[in-house]
Amino acid sequence: MLAVGVVCEVFAPRGSGFPRFDFALCADRPGRLATDSNVPLTVEHGLDRFSSADLLIALPGTDFRTPPPPAVLDALTAAHARGAVVAAHCVGAFALAAAGLLDGRRATTHWRFAELLAGRHPDVTVEPDALYIDEGHIVTGAGAAAGFDMCLHLLRREYGAATANAIARDMVLPSHRDGGQAQYLAAPVPEDCHDERLAEVLAWAREHLHEPLPVADLARRAMMSKRSFARRFTAATGTTPHAWLRNLRLSSAEELLETTDLPVEEIAHRVGYGSAAVLREQFVRRRGVPPRSYRRSFTGAL
After folding, report:
1. For residue range 19-65, what is the model confidence (pLDDT) as tens digits?
2. Rounded distance, CA 296 to CA 266, Å?
3. What is the distance in angstroms between the CA of the first residue and the CA of the last residue of the chain?
4. Where are the alpha helices (DSSP H) in the chain?
5. Alpha carbon distance 73, 262 (integer Å)
6. Across 17-72, where does the E strand assignment appear?
């Protein structure tokens, strides 16, 4: 239902000054359909509407692991062959892949299912960090709310930035989000570590993030050798102490950027970086956007 809401909102009638779209929801078997939110949806149109569409968007569904019926795959392939733009976001990309439309192309999907898509379709170059990928007449987008990013990109491409920006403002959304899905992934912080000594050290590190926290000091606090500490740390968290600290620092910086108006320099010191420049370098490298751009996305500044 979220995906339906995304496309319905982006392509909704908005009066003068906005493009008017001949919008329709289609299914291989029109009628009353079940949804993941248990709210029934009535779809009036069948696949015959594909024959005249300029843009088709395959929406995600809970049964994405099963290829769509042959009639759907044929309709998608025929639409692409006659020059229509065929797009999909989230796990809707699995339908395009099943139709062979992504072979030899780059594509993205929800980061959680990127590995599955790549494993099932080795001829597709899956880029799990992208919010959307434009391959001309084939466009794919990431999961959930990234459908807005993909649809706004399609509007920007066809109607220009002014129209896309105006529709984004109407929806109270940023017209363009920098970076990729990596900026929204949670840091691998274990909530229920069963190693008591290690858990105490992790809790202490969270409270002293503004300090340097070399691994040797953490190991001494845990009363372990550096090698034993690193081994038990990786077993408990699935990552190295250095990577865990880096992600924890960046996660804490994200929270401060979202919830405070502290200067970036102050945030850098609070999370253990020597300067705003160091924080910016790490933030761009790991999250894909600079801190100030990240803050704008989460404060609604357009």
Report:
1. 999 999 999 999 999 888 888 999 999 999 999 999 999 999 989 99
2. 17
3. 27
4. 2-10, 70-81, 93-98, 114-120, 146-159, 161-170, 196-207, 215-221, 226-237, 241-259, 264-270, 276-287, 291-299
5. 52
6. 31-33, 41-43, 55-58
